[in-house]
Amino acid sequence: MKKRNCLAAAALCLLLSGCGWLDGSYISVTSHQTQLANEAGEVPSASTYGELVQALEDIVAAGAESAAINVSEYPQDMVERGANSAASHVMTYDPVAAYAVEQITCELGTNLGQPALAVSVQYYHNKTEIQRIRTVKDTAEAERVIAQALEGFEAGIVLLVENYAERDYTQMVLDYALNNPQIVMETPQITEAVYGKDTSRVVELVFTYQNSRDALRRMLSQVTPVFDSAKLYVSGDDADRQKYAQLYAFLMERFDYKVETSLTPAYSLLRHGVGDSRAFASVYAAMCRSAGLDCQVVTGTHGGEPWSWNIVLDNGVYYHVDLLCGMEQGGFREFRDSEMEEYVWDYSAYPACVGYSGAAQMPEDAPETTAPAQPEETTEKN
């Protein structure tokens, strides 16, 4: 977007020349754009509709509440209609304006004896909020920045995605939280909005947490040593099944667990012994991955109820592992697809588990596990 200089003094000249400002509104400016400088003392000019649109976009980029546009070379019988059309176009298609502007109004007057538009804008968001917009190239980069926001327990994020593609950003957040319980202590409630109709869009995500940011940081500091210990608990020379069994023992022998849903899955499971199938599956998968093992979380139903479990890659072959089922049956077990009675899942979304013909008991030579000492209780919501 090319830049033009706008002088507040020029806008004042319009007022002094008898051109009154119409009631209007506007907002602007993002950190990815440089505010317009006034040192050149120039008022932007527009002789075509495209230049008029560009001038208004520049004003939005600068975050100006008022500005002047020289239209001496614009067809005078079309300037007011063109200005109104350009304002509507900018508010609809320009992503920052669509996110930030309530209204743009233009009135024809004169500036130093030359025809000029007096532009008035009003903000939905203040300039500081607009400056916090983060520019990303595409969806992949957006995902990385959103991950950073979740890891920092931020209240939300606003992104300008330059090469926008349709994507369910809410599901992106949910997936990241599920796959990273060692980092995301609480999955926030998510409000998603997308602004603009051009190739670039502004994506706004608002995160609402039940726990405070400080509380979530304390939880993170308390579960991180447990995940670190799990990684050290696995022997690098053992076979895959032995490693999976070791991590099963490490997790399942920590508590006499109480199966309940919690707002803070990893923290509640590892500090208080409280968790549902989703918490067990996500925490176990994170521990396996940290040990270099391939472990996925499967979301489906069991006995008609929502349920989560794991699929592991054992010596090149995929198997199902349900930790809560193992807890009831007395140890670590692996199952083929055909053995997953009363389980329902999207077969197309996960690898087929067809290799092993029976349930595997935890190896007899697996090392005995002593649950780590329990840390001091805290009062955060769980």
Question: What's this entry about, in short?
Answer:
This protein has 382 residues and is α+β, with helices and mostly antiparallel strands. It is built from 12 helices and 13 strands.
Describe the structure.
The chain has 382 residues and is an alpha+beta fold. The protein has three domains: 8-129, no CATH class; 133-208, Cell Cycle, Chain A (2-Layer Sandwich); 222-349, C8orf32 fold. It has helices at residues 8-16, 49-62, 79-93, 95-100, 127-131, 139-151, 169-179, 213-233, 240-252, 265-272, 277-290, 323-329, and strands at residues 66-70, 101-111, 114-123, 134-136, 156-161, 189-195, 201-208, 258-259, 274-275, 295-302, 305-314, 317-321, 343-344. The strands form four sheets. It has a four-stranded mixed beta sheet. It has a four-stranded antiparallel beta sheet with strand order 12-11-10-13. α8 packs across α11. The chain starts with 7 loop residues before the first helix and ends in a 38-residue tail after the last strand. Mean pLDDT is 85; it is low at 1-41 and 356-379.
Q: What's the order of the H and E elements?
A: HHEHHEEHEHEHEEHHEHEHEEEHE
The fraction of residues in strands falls at 15-25%
How many domains make up the 3D coordinates? Answer: 3
- State the secondary-structure class: alpha+beta
In order across it, which strands form the biggest sheet?
Answer: 4-5-7-6
The end-to-end span amounts to 48 Å
- The 3D shape can be described as elongated
Helix content: 25-40%
CATH architecture of the largest domain: Roll
In CATH, the topology of the largest domain is named: C8orf32 fold
Task: Give the tally of β-strands.
Answer: 13
Radius of gyration: 29 Å
Count up the helices. Answer: 12
CATH class of the largest domain: Alpha Beta
**Assembly type:** single chain
Averaged pLDDT: 85
The poorly predicted ranges are 1-41, 356-379
Question: Sheet with the most strands?
Answer: 4 strands, mixed
